[in-house]
Amino acid sequence: MIKILLADDHPLVRRGLRDVLREDPDNIVVAEARDGEDALDKILHYKPDMVFIDINMPHKDGIEVIRNVRKKYPGISFIVLTIHDNQHYYKEAIETGVKGYLLKDYALTEIKDCMNTVRQGKNYLSRYMDCDENTGCTDVLKKITRREKEILRELMDGSSNRKLAEKFFCSEKNIERIKTKLRKKLDLPPTYNALLSWAMQNRKLL
Fold it and tell me: Which pTM does this prediction carry?
């Protein structure tokens, strides 16, 4: 059984999600929230396994809610629902530790794949968000070694430094050095999920 909470200020969006989720008897929608403050209160009360949450909501935005909850309950999986398909919002969401990012226009068609991916400990990015070939990401890829590409793919599968070290027969410190070097190559900030965010956005090129 998976306890799920839906947070969106549009009743029709919540209804559509609820109807799709209830097709699987293992999914239990324990509560719904109409704004950010309502979402925060109900998440802390019900402690669901998974939360589908909009970024733009009254009183508190979804990102703020996620940050507050993850301080106390890092095990709750958050899946963002949004109209925003630009990289700014996606990067901000990933930095908060969300496990999935769905565009509202396509959420109902992707929700099952997203849930299955997240339940496997992996991250899910809507397939309707792709790397723009004009951004130069294909040129950057030429600078990345085969091992670095493998590490990026492993990060998308949820691999920890320990698992990466076992796979590549090296120490966790060595893995961290490789990741630091890779962030510099890609001109990324030294934050925890920066590499994961980049890999997810450019996954079709890896």
Answer: 0.73
State the distance between the two ends of the chain, measured CA to CA, in whole angstroms.
34
Measured torsion, CA atoms of residues 43, 125, 192, 160, in degrees rounded to the nearest 10: 90
Q: Which fold has domain 2-125?
A: Rossmann fold (3.40.50)
Render pLDDT for 121-132 as a digit per residue (tens, 0 to 9): 889 988 887 555
pLDDT in tens, 87-112: 778 888 888 999 999 999 889 889 99
The CA distance from 201 to 77, in Å, is 20
Per the DSSP assignment, residues forming a β-bridge with 155 are none
Asked if residues 69 and 63 have their Cβ atoms less than 8 Å apart, the reply is: no
Task: HSE, CB side, 13 Å, CA atoms: give it for residue 86.
Answer: 2
The residues facing 125 across adjacent strands are 101
Domain ranges in the chain are 2-125, 133-205
Task: Give the whole-angstrom CA distance, residue 96 versus residue 143.
Answer: 28
Q: CA 42, CA 48: separation in Å to the nearest integer?
A: 9
| CATH number of this structure's domain 133-205 | 1.10.10.10
Helix ranges (DSSP H) in 22-86: 36-46, 62-72
Higher-confidence position of 139 and 184: 184
* Cα 114–Cα 80–Cα 110 angle in degrees, nearest 5: 30
* Helix, coil or strand: residue 170: coil
The amino acid that residue 62 corresponds to is G
